[in-house]
Automatic annotation (TrEMBL):
Protein name (Swiss-Prot/TrEMBL): Gnk2-homologous domain-containing protein
Annotated localization: Secreted
Secreted is among the record's keywords: yes
PROSITE patterns named in the record: GNK2 (PS51473)
Keywords attached to this entry: Repeat, Secreted, Signal
Gnk2-homologous domain ranges (all copies): 1-87, 93-198
Length: 202
């Protein structure tokens, strides 16, 4: 169990640090009482919506998880997590889930190759940028466009980000093969693809 006082101070810190750049992390307390946390907003989300999402995530964790040693919550616009363990710079292998579009594609094999092509490129691109975030699209036949997104928490370095994203991409055949859209969401990174735009217009 973490100290409620330290946890509230951590959330206050993240509220201040996250919205201007879309990311923030920090530690409050010493020794056994230390609590570590980070929040990340999706790369296209503006500061106002980022702050609103972090506020909502904070409320959710305070309601449901304030007596836990660690917790994580995901929304479309942000993720927020904390732990009594120092986790910065390490790929989070424990917290992961999948979401799929209920609709199937006509040619799963060819479509999966295109998904892999797009997301693998985005994995590389994201790992090369300071924000560890990339979006892109790939033109398909029949005037369809495949849209993709890849993002990591910025406590990871480029190679760690790429490994996290590549591992997420490798999960897609097992969880989401033949689906028009899917996402693999983890505590350190996530990937997503759809046949419709998935980020805000700039």
């Amino acid at each position: 169990m973490v100290s409620a006082t330290n946890l509230n101070q951590l959330f206050d810190l993240l509220h201040t640090k996250v919205p201007p750049t879309g990311y923030g992390y920090g530690s409050i307390g010493q020794g056994m009482d230390q609590v570590n946390g980070l929040a990340l907003c999706r790369g296209d989300v503006n500061a106002t919506n980022c702050m609103a999402c972090v506020n909502e995530a904070t409320k959710k964790l305070q309601e449901r998880c304030s007596k836990k040693k660690g917790a994580i919550v995901w929304y479309d616009y942000c993720l927020l997590k904390y732990s009594n363990e120092y986790f910065f710079g390490e790929i989070d292998e424990k917290n992961k889930f999948y979401m799929v579009n209920i609709y199937d594609v006509d040619d799963p094999s060819t479509f999966s190759d295109k998904v892999n092509e797009l997301l693998s490129g985005l994995s590389y691109n994201a790992s090369q940028t300071p924000m560890l975030y990339a979006v892109g699209e790939l033109q398909l036949q029949e005037s369809k466009t495949l849209y993709g997104l890849a993002q990591c928490t910025r406590d990871l370095l480029g190679p760690g980000c790429k490994k996290c994203l590549d591992d997420a991409i490798s999960d897609l055949p097992n969880c989401c093969d033949g689906k028009q859209g899917a996402r693999v969401v983890g505590g350190s990174c996530y990937v997503r693809y759809e046949l419709y735009p998935i980020v805000e217009d700039p």
